[in-house]
Amino acid sequence: MKKLLSFLLVLVLMSTLFAAAALADDAGPAADAVVSVTISMAGEIVVPAVPVLVSDLNADGILDVDEALTCAHDQLYDGGAAAGYAAVDFGSGLFITNLWGDDSGNYGIYVDNEMAMSASDPVQAGGSVNIYLYSDTEYWSDQYTYFDQTDAVAEDGTLTLTLCAVSFDENWAPVAAPCAGATITIDGEATEFVTDENGQVTVCFDAAGSYLLSAVSDSAILVPPVCKVTADQAAAPAEEPAPVAAADAVVSVTISMAGEIVVPAVPVLVSDLNADGILDVDEALTCAHDQLYDGGAAAGYAAVDFGSGLFVTNLWGDDSGNYGFYVDNKMAMSASDPVQAGGSVNIYLYSDTEYWSDQYTYFDRTDAVAEDGTLTLTLCAVSFDENWAPVAVPCAGATITCNGEATEFVTDENGQVTVCFDAAGSYLLSAVSDSAILVPAVCKVTAAQAAAPAEEPAPEEPVTYTVVRGDCLWKIARKFYGDGKKWADIYNANASIIKNPNLIYAGQVLLIP
Questions:
Q1: How far is 308 from 305, CA to CA, in rounded Å?
Q2: What is the DSSP letter of 207?
Q3: How far apart are CA 119 and CA 283, in angstroms?
Q4: Cα–Cα distance between 372 and 391 in angstroms, integer?
Q5: What pLDDT shows up at residue 26?
């Protein structure tokens, strides 16, 4: 009985195994599926996200990377997979030994933008396989990147994409992060579109059509991402923002004509006459002439744009064009240079039109109060270094003028000078020099009072000596002068009390000159 039961149990087990095997055989190969395949060879895209019909070539019920690449080569490579693709099973999986005719073996593989371990990794219908030949075979630094879309429509001629890059954390686990600073290419040509810190970029197309987008970087070797775009139309041109006129501002304007100050650091209300949002030298001078010149800017001022900026052609009624100008005591390049509220514009007609040697000078202040009737200023001059770059240096030896009259006050080696005013009032200070032609500096001074008169030095106390027994004029001269021969100086100073130079008496008080 026991033998019969054992025999029946064996029959049941065998029938179960045969049924399982039959079911497995009935499962058959996996159904064909479309997979997006991208192949790039050392940065060159040769298969750009092409839909490939993949078959289960080994009929194991699974579609894998190897089958996707075999089918891709059969469908797309000249000569098929037999000519351009191969993979070998080394026991731990299939490894590719030939890709698009290259047999170096230096390849990286991603499936659905996740790193693949071998060509045996499975693929899914609608999924993607991205395989690339390394560009850097020394450090293997090629960085895998991908867009958030591989097929897109730019309905209004623009498309916003996000570019990600795969790097590795401290445990060498792959992590995806935004790829910033990458330049987008369209059909292989670099564009002005660059990804931001979030990896985002908006690309504009200048015509309807089909485009292949990728990306490159100056800081890394990128495995080229792929996005195939259909633009329905050209992108609308970007609207230029309407210019907003700059607010009016007060600027100090000084104009001198061949050494004569005609506008001495006058506060001028400057308007943005061309409404470009910037106040410039031209506008400051136009407003200065309108406010201060008889007949206004129309009669006495003009500037012309020669392409590289505005150049003054008429200043205070002079149309020689021989002008120099400074903004905030820095050399200006043209009348298009900007000016700031509270800043200064100094323009001058050259005195020397042969050697153009007029030297620009300025005080450390243009408005000052001399509360005690005195004021200390520093005068600087602009010269040029060995590279012809302008540099400011102390202006020594310059004579200060007050209301156009030369004074006794002269700048020292540091350019400093202390000016004393003999009465309360308003004064215009400038400077001239015997050794150079100075563009006149300007300082407007309000003296609250006259300077106190300089104190006369106290008279020196006379030096006297009381004669003691044994003294003689020779001995006294040697004591005070170190030279006995100067006894006559003492004698002459005391002739009223010394009758005979050979006879002096103890107790006499002598004046020592």
A1: 7
A2: S
A3: 72
A4: 34
A5: 52
